């Protein structure tokens, strides 16, 4: 399953696989960088984004409102860094996001975005990544 976060949010994706009790890796990419969320039997058990892991990474990834995602089924998590229930994890992440937006502190871009965009473009040129067309 592939798509854009503006069409289906990370919360929506997680809720689907939580309800289905699936084991998946969710790969996320945008001008903000690259991140991953791992689910085991429907529970979020690990997230990574830049130097962040666990809930810190998860909360940062929940702030993305655009980018691409791809779900890879059957991928075992490399480690177990999140112990919260999915519902409470999502609620806390959304609460933090609302609080950040109210304060105007949600960053537009992080340092290193130019390097991330260059890397993504290079991977597209090499055919390692494939760009999704509108409507796919």
What does this structure look like?
The chain is an alpha+beta fold and 136 residues long. It is 37% helix and 24% strand. The protein has one domain. The chain has 4 helices and 6 strands, in the order βαββββαβαα. β3 and β4 form a beta hairpin. The model is unreliable at 108-112 (pLDDT under 50).
Name the descriptors.
136 residues, alpha+beta, six-stranded antiparallel sheet, 4 helices, 6 strands, 37% helix, 24% strand, globular
Report a brief summary of the structure.
By secondary structure, the protein is α+β, with helices and mostly antiparallel strands. It has one domain (2-125).
Strands of the widest sheet, in order across it, are 1-6-2-3-4-5
Number of helical stretches of at least 4 residues: 4
Helical amount among residues, as a percent range?
25-40%
- Backbone structural class: alpha+beta
* Span between termini: 10 Å
Strand content: 15-25%
Write down the domain tally: 1
Mean pLDDT: 83
Strand and helix map with partners:
Layout (H helix, E strand, L loop, with lengths): L1 E3 L5 H10 L4 E7 L2 E8 L2 E7 L2 E2 H9 L5 E6 L12 H18 L9 H13 L11
